[in-house]
Amino acid sequence: MANQTYKAAIASKYTNQPSGFTIADLPRPGLTTATQVEVEVHAASLNPIDFKRAEGMLSIPLPEPFPLKLGYDVAGVVTKAGDSVTRFKVGDRVYGRVDSKDVGTIAEYVTCDASTLAPIPPTVSYTSAAAVPLAGLTAKQSLEKTGLKQGQSVFISGGLGGVGMFAIALAKHHFGASEIATTVSTKKIDLAKQLGATRVVDYTKEDYTSVLESWADATFDTVGDSSSYMVAKPGTKAVSVAMLADGNALDNFRNGTVPLSMIGSVKFALAKKAVAAAGWFLTRGFRAKGVEYAYVAMNSDGEDLEKSFNPLLADGRIKPVISNTYPFTEEGVQAAFKESREGHATGKIIVAVKE
Q: Which long-range contacts (CB under 8 A, 24 or more apart) does 285-289 make?
């Protein structure tokens, strides 16, 4: 008889301390719909949403029961497939960013909708594959939203964060940008250039808004800087994944998976009004300059992941930068979350569950 439990990283309550993360034995859920697959996890990666969620920062738009299962990004092997799944079969290597309802990839197994997964190219490791989905799709869909076209210039803040490094590589290899500018600290300049940046501003020595004033055909803010409008040309588009433009952005977090009855409609409405007021204030510079501003919420799409990344991963044009790889132990998970929360990682943080 197959094991009826599995080990998973959890938080038993909201926490901002590494010691709040533990590994527990949970009931193995099995498939609940014909479109799901079960994946034996080999590697998972952390993203800022993981520690923000654990700290309760998403508790208004996305209330959840405890224990909180952790992790959205996964790379592993399909162990079960629902009757309606046609893209994958048992034994296939897959990677993806699971939906919020399936969160919990830092575990021995995860059950998720097959539509969120893509096949791993044969030459790509589980570690490299796990680094891509959330950050990579966020970068791709954000650059798409800017309207970036071949031969244009793009500014990407935080070029060696998890999202920024993929945005630089995609701007060069997928969108065909002619000039790519970014901001990094002194010791990261060479790596930013290796990824594809053509103009690198050392933010410890220069003000990028002065160096690049009205320079970019497309602007992508990954760090939540309301001054980024200054680098955008008038009449262009700017997007952010870190600065909410209006209260409706909270609906993207809820994404229909959490009924308002769990949140409280009045509480949620007040939260949306507060976000709207802050967003209106923070984006005033974009409006004054005639720059169209939008907040981007990533859509988990396995086919988009496969089409956009598999060719670039297979031929080495995109090589995920890994900050550190930690073992699937309580100490390892705690250390991984500590590094993620400190915010100084160069590249992605991986938990090696089986690899």
A: 285/226, 285/227, 285/229, 285/230, 286/229, 286/232, 286/238, 289/229, 289/230, 289/232, 289/234
Q: Hey, what amino acid is at 55?
A: E
Q: What is the dihedral of CA 317, 241, 305, 68, to 10 degrees?
A: 120
Sheet hosting strand 232-240, strand order edge to edge: 199-202, 179-184, 153-156, 216-221, 232-240, 292-295
Residues sharing a CB contact under 8 Å with residue 118, sequence separation 6 or more, in sequence order: 94, 95, 96, 302, 303, 305, 306, 309, 310
pLDDT digits (tens, 9 = 90+) for 44-98: 999 999 999 999 887 655 678 899 999 999 999 999 999 999 999 999 999 999 9
Whole-model pTM: value is 0.89
Each residue of 104-124: pLDDT tens digit?
999 999 999 999 999 999 999
